[in-house]
Each structure stands twice: as structure tokens, then as C-alpha cells.
Input
Amino acid sequence: MTISLPPTTHYPVDTKTKDFAYIDLETHTSLYQQSLETPDTFWAQQADRLEWVIKPSTIKNCSFAKHDLSIRWFEDGQLNASVNCLDRHLEQHADQLAMIWEPDSETDSVRNYTYRELHAEVCKLANGLKSLGVAKGDVVTLYMP
Output
């Protein structure tokens, strides 16, 4: 049986998008190659880019045994998502764009948030949850249809 795939179509990246990108294609290719050749070193370097509450002592702990399939990354480390996604950017990037909110309704307008504005909204939510009796260690679930 022969499978015939259509030719790959490549679309050029516009200049604005290319200039805004965090890395270029050459850097991406190099990082990807490193992730294949020395995955533990690569992921340790990526972990160093984060702020850890407790820094992990192991990168990965994997078992591919038939009755013991498990893959654990940074299992003894502890992160604070808010610190890494928001707080650590406030000092140098408070007035830069952090998030673009796209409404579902066509009548509502798009809302841009700087890191400072987003932080204020997160604090409002945290204080609202606290006023409802939510405490450290409680599990809170958000439903986003």
C-alpha cells in the first residue's frame, strides 16, 4: 500500500510577526536539536528560566515498564503559577501588554491588559475568593465554557 501525501505548502511569516517572535528559526532549530540530543540538560536549562518555590533536584523520572508506565517532570519541585506568569514581569514590564482578551460577543470590544492592569484584576479575584472563605490549600475550580 502506498500513501501519497500532498506537497507541503509553506507560508511566509510576515515581518511584524517575525520581529515580535521570541526566537528566530535558527535558534529554534538549535534548541530543538539540543532537546533531542541532551534532553536532561535542555530541560534543566528551561527549568532555570522559571522562579521556583522549591527547585527540583531531578528533571524527569520515567518508567516505561509494562505495568508501571509513569512520566514525572520536576516531581520534587514546586512552582507558583502567578509568580511565573505575572508577578516576575511587573518590575520591568508593568506597562507592557500582557494579555489580549477576545470576547465571544461581537458587541463587546477587545480588551488589552498591561501586566499592571492584569495584576490588579488578579488581586481583585484573589480578594473576592478570600472574602468567600477560600483559604490557602483549598481547591478552586473554574469552568470556562
About this structure: The CA atoms of residues 29 and 125 lie 40 Å apart. The chain has two domains: 23-78, 80-134. DSSP finds five helices and six strands in the chain. The helical segments are 15-20, 25-37, 39-47, 81-93, 115-131.
